């Protein structure tokens, strides 16, 4: 009954608001108008002398909502939850219903986000299970990972280390690797799977070769010897064996699931230690057999890897 009366008053007062016939204005309707204006001010906090047509538009919207089944249900739940707030103003119920909808929306987003994170975790774990770890891996990132998965796991295992996509490979600087802070490059085959990575120490001038660059190369040799065993070949790299854009090889591991080459190279008059690790089965390059170069001069055999210039 209250709802029907409210709708009727809305219609009557709406016509009155637009009417210029002052004879229709009675004291009763003026009192009702004041009641509605007071309700508007109390519900909205707008204490200005708003145009009554604006107030009537607000009241019509309230009345329309009050006709919905959702309002009837909300009113019953509101009275049950707030028994001390009787009598109930419709605007309070509507505001409470709006907040409830907002809470439901936020809760749904949280649930959806959690489900996505869970699904992502399941997908990551499934892919990790398909690519078992080996002593050749870069930390906890095994060969065979898809590039997208690799990026997600790298961010997880190396937080705060930016990973740049150069187009040819993924590139990261200041990566912790044992006692060294290195530049790393990660290469993916045509199927998008990790098949190779390269590690470089900081490029330094020739006067740092003995006390910084060679010790960094020795760390590479030591770490992979501990992981894999003795190298298949150990080379000696003299100063004049170091060439621009070629890796002069010290230790080599061949014949296993992956190849490992460590050595020293030079680029733009700076010297750096480098390690290149490649998974044989995943390497689908046509020219991979031409990577290794053997030069014999004055009875000395020197091995090089044509691995291109330093990681930019």
**Rg calculated over all Cα atoms:** 38 Å
Structural class of the secondary elements?
Answer: alpha+beta
Number of domains: 2
Span of the ends, CA to CA: 79 Å
How many individual β-strands?
Answer: 10
Instruction: Describe the largest sheet.
Output: 10 strands, antiparallel
Order of helices and strands: HHHHHHEEEEHEEEEEE
**What helical percentage do the residues reach?**
40-55%
Stretches with pLDDT under 50, minimum 5 residues = 1-5, 114-118
The number of helical runs is 7
Shape: rod-shaped
The share of residues in extended strands comes to 15-25%
Mean pLDDT: 77
List the helices and strands and how they pair.
Elements: H1 2-18, H2 27-44, H3 52-66, H4 69-81, H5 90-130, H6 147-157, E1 164-165, E2 170-177, E3 180-188, E4 194-200, H7 209-228, E5 233-234, E6 247-253, E7 258-267, E8 270-279, E9 292-297, E10 300-305
Antiparallel strand pairs: 1-2, 2-3, 3-4, 4-8, 5-6, 6-7, 6-10, 7-8, 9-10
Helix pairs in contact: 1-3, 4-5
What does this structure look like?
The model is unreliable at 1-5 and 114-118 (pLDDT under 50). This protein folds into 2 domains: 2-96, no CATH class; 147-305, no CATH class. The N and C termini lie far apart (79 Å). Strands 1, 2, 3, 4, 5, 6, 7, 8, 9 and 10 form a 10-stranded antiparallel β-sheet that branches. The chain is rod-shaped. Strand 6 (247-253) and strand 7 form a beta hairpin. The chain has helices at residues 2-18, 27-44, 52-66, 69-81, 90-130, 147-157, 209-228; strands at 164-165, 170-177, 180-188, 194-200, 233-234, 247-253, 258-267, 270-279, 292-297, 300-305. 43% of the residues lie in helices and 21% in strands. The longest helix is centred in the middle third of the chain and has 41 residues, at 90-130. It has 312 residues and is α+β, with helices and mostly antiparallel strands.
């Amino acid at each position: 009954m209250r709802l029907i009366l409210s709708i009727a008053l809305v219609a009557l007062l709406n016509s009155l608001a637009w009417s210029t016939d002052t004879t229709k204005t009675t004291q009763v309707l003026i009192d009702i108008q004041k009641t509605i204006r007071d309700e508007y001010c109390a519900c909205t906090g707008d204490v200005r002398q708003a145009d009554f047509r604006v107030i009537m538009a607000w009241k019509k919207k309230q009345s329309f909502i009050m006709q919905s089944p959702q309002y009837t249900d909300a009113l019953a739940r509101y009275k049950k939850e707030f028994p001390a707030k009787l009598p109930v103003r419709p605007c309070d119920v509507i505001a409470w219903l709006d907040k409830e909808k907002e809470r439901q929306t936020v809760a749904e987003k949280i649930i959806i986000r959690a489900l996505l994170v869970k699904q992502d975790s399941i997908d990551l774990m499934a892919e990790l299970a398909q690519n078992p770890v080996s002593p050749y891996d870069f930390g906890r990132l095994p060969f065979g990972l898809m590039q997208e998965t690799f990026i997600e796991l790298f961010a997880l295992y190396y937080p705060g280390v930016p990973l740049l996509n150069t187009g040819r490979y993924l590139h990261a600087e200041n990566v912790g690797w044992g006692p060294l802070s290195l530049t790393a490059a990660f290469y993916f085959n045509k199927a998008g799977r990790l098949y190779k990575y390269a590690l470089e120490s900081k490029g330094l001038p020739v006067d740092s070769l003995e006390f910084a660059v060679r010790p960094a190369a020795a760390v590479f040799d030591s770490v992979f010897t501990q992981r894999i065993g003795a190298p298949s070949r150990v080379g000696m790299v003299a100063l004049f064996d170091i060439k621009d854009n070629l890796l002069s090889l010290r230790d080599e591991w061949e014949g296993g699931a992956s190849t490992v080459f460590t050595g020293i190279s030079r680029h733009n008059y700076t010297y750096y230690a480098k390690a290149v690790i490649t998974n044989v089965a995943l390497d689908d390059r046509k020219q991979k057999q031409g990577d290794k170069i053997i030069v014999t001069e004055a009875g000395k055999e020197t091995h090089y890897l044509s691995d291109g210039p330093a990681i930019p």
